[in-house]
Fold:
Amino acid sequence: MADNTWSPSSWRNKPAAQDVVYPDREKLEKVLGKIRTLPPLVSPSEIERLRHQLAQVQRNQAFLLHAGDCAESFDACTHENIAAKIGLILSFSLIVIWGARKPVVRIGRIAGQYAKPRSSPTEKIGDREVLSFRGDNVNGLDPNDRTPDPDRMLSAYFHSTATLNHVRSLLTSGFASLHHPKDWSLSHVRSPALREEFERITEGLSDALEFTRTIGIGKESVSYEQGGGRGALGEVDFYTSHEGLMLDYEEAMTREFPVPSSLGSYASSSPQSSPTTVHYNTSAHFLWIGDRTRQLNGAHVEYFRGIRNPIGVKVGPSMKADELVRLLEIVNPNRENGKVTLITRYGAGKVEEHLPGHIRAVQESGHPVIWISDPMHGNTLTSSSGLKTRNFGTIISELTSCLRIHAECGSHLNGVSLEFTGELAEDGFSVTECLGGSMRLSEDQLPLRYQSFCDPRLNFEQSLDVAFLISDHFKKERTGGKKSYGDVLYSELGGRTLA
Structure:
């Protein structure tokens, strides 16, 4: 639990990186006062359920999928975009479950991921220098709308509410059971060898699902709409997350609640005592500290150390091993299971240099952590036409390097963090933002359907490429087969040859 020196506002006594300066402070306080009175978006029981499931991930009994947009936009809060994103997350997790034979904990970068850190407070647009675009909850993408507006935080709350409400309605009405491998088209796969591998995996998955339905699991005699249950295959847990960047907003959404009584000894010290109260951030189930805001003496670490939510910490090449251990001591002094997820993001060319040392430092410290790989952020480049992009080959090279290095260090890679989207462009085809993959997207094809206003995302087909790779790896690990780094699937997807 947080000590007596912590409060939801104690971060204000620390230097805040990526701080937003609002010209109208009176309006800011009015908006924050309103947000403090609005209902929570998530409940303490949901947060505690996620903590329990993340403890299973930590013990290598489940796999963590953290995925979604780099940054959400208010305009993308539509049925089509939300359904496409949730559908992709469900399809991805189904493929991984089949290969790994373990549950997948699904955390979406959704219903609140509206802010984005920037390397500079200003940017040059033509011959003008304007404030950088900081995300829809701060200012506008239009160069003439760059003054930070507190009302955008209020709008972010209501867009998050609408998104979360629609996600919940989808997942409680049979949507999860619709994402069957028979519906996946493999026509985009250019390589015959790769298509054969994918077909083998989807056929095995389809057979497994048909078997469960044959013996009565997931087969309801009465539909959900006619009063029947959702079925075993239609019941899924889904959690929301965002980077805890805007501390004014996070403080306003932090509420004090009793720990649920079902948690036993944690809830109260004795049967006669009053329930223990803790602070939950009720804007999301899971929040993370970015690579630009993880200063040990900074405002973000101060805020994060006091909330009960499970948290993530981005770990990049600039993180020293001893700094990582000190950070863990601050945010998880009681060494609680399921509390901290380390999200590593080095770049394919730097993972070999940094990951082993970070693993050893954490192992020697005895801190319980979840390790997941973000193979996206360290592998961004600029195309010859000026578009930000990523090469699928370097993405999977970093991912498979993480799998191998963890195994060599006596550790486990517990999950993956991806920026992906299932949304379609106006012409009905997937977006074109990352190079390569089974569709062999080329640089001259990037402008065809490039829609991201932030970082480039894997499209539906490229995302399933990653899912097939992970699933195949874990299946071979279970059955004693050849590991994925070096086989036909890895090489056909453009993975870098390992020394």
User: Anything to note?
Assistant: The first strand starts at residue 63 and ends at 68.
